[in-house]
């Protein structure tokens, strides 16, 4: 599912039917056996990544209904219903990983609360302020085009397209190179495949909205410019006890990767920063 081809909500709905998977069936036995023997610094880095993922999925699962109300036709409603189920499934997978591998069983709310202790202010700015406010605005008036554009820019472009895609690239590269947590990587890959559909929806919607009304391009731009400082900070990997950044990641490389993907999608949408 590349950006070169645009997919309609109906195409994306049908793709969802063809790509089913279960969060409960991914095999986590090897991960559970290996977890206690990981280096403490490695475990800390993975727990930080997992915390970001759990909090992000909780937010994007619960701050979504307004977009379903804002659908323009039944095909879009069908697609959006699948996306909401996907996000709940992703949250279930990360909670299950905590339960069975980190061996820290709890209700999902307790996982989310604990995960929040690992995260800083940029996360709150994006997920608790920008996303929540954009969602409230859309719920208040689902027919407000500007509100839908601002919401999809925040949710699909900033959170899923930029933060999500970048995190997936660097975290799975590291785990694969070090041959760590194959079950986690398998589940995360399924999640990333779902996310490709979600980002494709967001890009297609914004492109059509901007083509219909050029003022919407300004709404996309203004939303991005407002959020980019927090995005850059949220992508900064925490430093490990030994000094360097977690996963040995070069922060400049992370920012370049994130900006490159965002720029490519903005070209499709017809907006420049
Ligand atoms: Fe997700
Ligand atoms: Fe998603």
Write the layout of secondary structure elements.
Elements: H1 9-18, H2 29-34, H3 40-62, H4 65-69, H5 74-100, H6 108-116, H7 121-140, H8 145-177, H9 182-212, H10 215-234, H11 251-269
Helix pairs in contact: 1-5, 1-9, 3-5, 3-6, 3-7, 3-8, 5-9, 7-8, 7-10, 8-9, 8-10, 8-11, 9-10, 9-11
The protein binds fe (ii) ion (2 copies).
One fe (ii) ion binds at residues 57, 60, 87, 90, 191, 195.
Summarize the structure.
With 273 residues, the chain is mainly alpha-helical. The protein has helices at residues 9-18, 29-34, 40-62, 65-69, 74-100, 108-116, 121-140, 145-177, 182-212, 215-234, 251-269.
Care to describe what's here?
The chain is an all-alpha fold and 273 residues long. It is built from eleven helices and no strands. It has helices at residues 9-18, 29-34, 40-62, 65-69, 74-100, 108-116, 121-140, 145-177, 182-212, 215-234, 251-269. α8 (145-177) packs antiparallel against α11 (251-269). The chain is globular and about 55 Å long. The mean pLDDT is 93. The structure holds fe (ii) ion (2 copies). One fe (ii) ion binds at residues 57, 60, 87, 90, 191, 195.
Low-pLDDT stretches are: none
Q: How large is the radius of gyration?
A: 18 Å
Q: What ligands does this structure carry?
A: fe (ii) ion
- What best-fitting shape do the alpha-carbon axes yield? globular
Which class do the helix and strand fractions yield? mainly alpha
Number of helices: 11
Fraction of residues in H or I helices: over 70%
Overall mean confidence score, pLDDT? 93
Describe the largest sheet: none
Quaternary class: single chain
Give the ordered list of helices and strands.
HHHHHHHHHHH
Tally of extended strands? 0
Distance between the termini: 25 Å
β-strand percent reads under 5%
